[in-house]
Amino acid sequence: MKILNNFVGRFLQRHVVSLSVTLLLSLFLVVSLADKIFINIPAGHAGVLWERFRGGTNVEKVYAEGLRVISPWNRMSIYNTRLREATNSISVLAKDGLELHVEFLVRYRPVFESLGILHKYMGENYLKVLIMPEVNSRGRAIMSKYSPEEIYSSKRQIIQEQIQLEVSEELMVDLVRVKEDKGPIMKNKSLGKQDKRLVFIEDILLKTITLPATVKAAIEAKVEHRHRMLQYEYILAREGKESQRKVIEALGISEFQKIVKNGISDRYLRWKGIDATLALAKSNNAKVVIIGAGKEGMPLILGNMGAQSNSSDASGDVKIDATTDKAPAIDLTSEPSKSEEPTMVKPEPRKKISFKDKALELLSFGKEDVGQNGNVKP
After folding, report:
1. First CA to last CA across the chain, in angstroms?
2. I need a labelling partner for 57 at 20 to 30 A (CA). Which of 44, 282, 299, 334 fits?
């Protein structure tokens, strides 16, 4: 052990300069190549390693987030694995040959396990190389089966789902062909055990659809008239129900009149008129009481008005009958002659009747014709 220590000591003394230079050179190389040796993979990203002396791209292993140490002669490609979106505008022909301008919005993300294959065969520009050509091709093929009206309104959601389904089926690879290095893309219609999806398509949306102005106006007018027709159907149904309601209401009124017709008499109506007059007299509002006409008149316009036809003559002259309590009546059916002015007949002195006497007379009538229970005597 002592001999070994002596040997090492003598060796360091002889080669101290060369060892120091080698150490400093190595440290310089590590510092200068640090960005190629120490690779930081941020959040939401993944890395694919290309090995210079071990066959190129490693499709079997994908590096997750964090700090990775690799050889300086290798290369690490970092991919964004978060959900992203891209837009693309194309011109398509509808079923009737009309040209439409459509803008697609694609939301996508690469599949983590397939990043090695995607990097080897498609590269970082896989959006323009792989996704958009498939979206454009499937979009033109599917939209050519529909009319402009269906694309613009009723079939829009169905078209989006069909494009997404067919594009997703196209973006798959056959692992057997990949291992044999025969190319990755296979036009499969179903995902088998040996198939792997390269890119996950979240959805494909028809962002904007531009129609010719005349076609757009015609479609909008057609839809408007269709909804107006539905509105008229509801209006007709409502009017039918309203007609039935009015028939039922009329039948009810007719039955009510048949029931109460024999129970309503003139005495009962006069008694209700007296009650209404008393209620009016007790109110605090300013009022004008009009005394009814005739012998059986009441302090409301509910009395016998048949005698008013005798209060004016055929010539249109206004006459006042002082023997009765009726107000003068004017015949408006005949016009006085232009040569003669209407003459007034001098009324005879009429007997003055106070309002108190008239009210007492009406109240005495009510007490005689009303029983103890408040009902009008027949």
Report:
1. 149
2. 44
Average pLDDT over residues 236-242: 92
Q: How far apart are CA 147 and CA 96, in angstroms?
A: 6
* Cβ pair 65, 41 in contact under 8 A: yes
Helix axes 132-143, 156-170, angle to 10 degrees: 140
Cα 113 off chain centre by: 42
Look up residue 12 and give its two tokens: 């360091």
Give the span between the Cα atoms of 181 and 186, in whole angstroms.
13
Which tens digit of pLDDT belongs to each residue from 153-191?
788 899 999 999 999 888 876 555 555 555 555 444 444
Q: Could you tell me if 163 and 132 are in contact, meaning their C-beta atoms sit under 8 angstroms apart?
A: no
Closest by CA to 113, choosing from 199, 186, 182, is 199
Strand pairing class (75-80; 172-174)? unpaired
Give one DSSP letter per residue of 196-212, joined into a string.
Answer: EESEEEEEEEEEEEE--
Helix (H, G, I), strand (E, B) or coil at 367: helix
Determine whether 156 is exposed, middle or buried from the number of CB atoms within 10 Å of its CB (0-12, 13-18, 19+): middle
> What is the CB-side half-sphere exposure of residue 149 using CA atoms within 13 A?
7
